[in-house]
Amino acid sequence: MGTMTLQAQDPQFSQYYAAPLYLNPAFTGSEMLPRIGANYRNQWPGLQAQFTTFSAYYDTYLDDYNSGIGFMVMNDVEGGAKLRSTTVSGLYSYELRVGENAYFRPGVQASYIRRDIGFFENLIFANQINPADPLGPTLPSTDLPGSGEPVNLLSLSFGGLFFTDKFWFGLSAHHVNEPNQSFLDGVSPLPAKFSIHTGYRISLGSGSYRSDFTHQRKQRYLLPTLNYKRQGPFEQLDIGAYLHMEPLNLGIWYRGLPYKPVENQNNRDAIVMMIGFNLPTGMSMGYSFDYTVSQLGIQSGGAHEVSISFLLADKNQARTRKRDTLLPCPKF
Which of 36, 213, 224, 330 is deepest in the core (most CB within 10 A)? Predict the structure, then answer.
């Protein structure tokens, strides 16, 4: 009788602020306008065991209730075994004013997750190999009868976000109920994931005048940021900075914890480089590349990531908002 241990991690986005609802449910409705966005990531395309992730989301702010509501879907395909996860989430946040230009937003997320590894489509067991013709067609498998069917999970997540006009600090805890993700008889909990994310906005003065009717100058600022993540035995730290020279955004950061190896493997991951644009129309676009510095090396193909979002027109533009402080964190 054999045993199998599965250690799973959630998908990750290098442009984590371009996937705000995925990072922390407290970001739901944070722009105070209807928002729609999508993210695509292709990790290690040079290997047969690549990871591809796509997500899309919509959120908006209900001014009369100080509340944000949102909806998110995600599809993730992992590794050579093609482990496929489909997630559908509903999100809610509430905004509290705790001081002059200071706000706190708690948030909650409920997710339905369906996972399918395709046991008999993507995996080959020993008794499927014909000794007389090992390179020929595989035989029907009799291993694990009745097992390997897709699993359905319900996940609960929570988050909190404090911010002023220059500083933000967020905490999130995903899968706090640790649902059972085992494809076999038994229990294999999906580990809870924790994240701490923070940063500060440093003004670099004003640029030239905008070419529109506002007669305002273009914004310029630097945003040092940090994002720490832990899930099961895995830990990572993203640390770097964004430079905003309206409408251009540039970013560079390092991901890893080299002083804290995992299972005797050096915990280095990648150097991430990003370029993006925030247009006056409300559209934001970004592209980033992960230069792999782990033992896989750059021959893995690194990771390519694209993000896009739109701020939609508010039907009640004439209404006086309860908050005029903009969330200072980047959009990428």
Answer: 330
